[in-house]
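User: Teach me something about this protein's shape.
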Amino acid sequence: MTATAPQMRILIIEDDRESADYLVKAFREVGYIADLASDGEEGLSMAETGDYDVLVVDRMLPKRDGLSLIGSLRDKGNRTPVLILSALGQVDDRIKGLRAGGDDYLPKPYSFAELLARVEVLSRRNVGPAEETTYKVGDLELDRLSHRVARGKDELTLQPREFRLLEYLMKHAGQVVTRTMLLENVWDYHFDPQTNVIDVHISRLRSKIDKGFERPLLHTIRGAGYMIRDGIR
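Assistant: First, the predicted structure itself:
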């Protein structure tokens, strides 16, 4: 074990007392600091206020489920690595957990040796730079934490889905974003609903961020998708 290993702080969010006590004891035995929350609300509060290196989160929790907890943290800019534990181990379950903001997913039952190895990998990822909280394209700026959007001196009012759509487009500025990518990452659809929901929201968003401005930033790439970019021809 390295000299810095005992400094690792882990928050375990698990409602099964026997499992929780086992994990706390096992992590402490290898020299880590391990705290425990027994429901989703307590876990969210501790994760927001504590300085943890890794969160180990059970998916099915009382008061607030694990995926909702993770989503709330990510929406507030908390990038602490999360390992999800769950009895739901099918491929679709794992994909849903990762797309909700989890960094790793370990189905139950599991071995502690594997869990420990995965936690240590996640802790090493956390030393890198934090994800951007502000996106800027030309004179358009989006603040992910305050949910503020402005173009030049004009502050823009977006509905939640419009904000999420713009956030995804700006995160991938200069890249073509396909309809499938938008359905999966903005609407959480993993099938084609056969509606014009994307067209409607793109139109509304374009009217808010481009109308009245000299240079359009939101572009439709015929036959491919959409792109946010300054100065495209």
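Now, about its shape. Residues 5-125 form a domain with the Rossmann fold fold (CATH 3.40.50.2300). The radius of gyration is 21 Å. If you'd like, I can walk through any region in more detail.
User: That's plenty for now, thanks!
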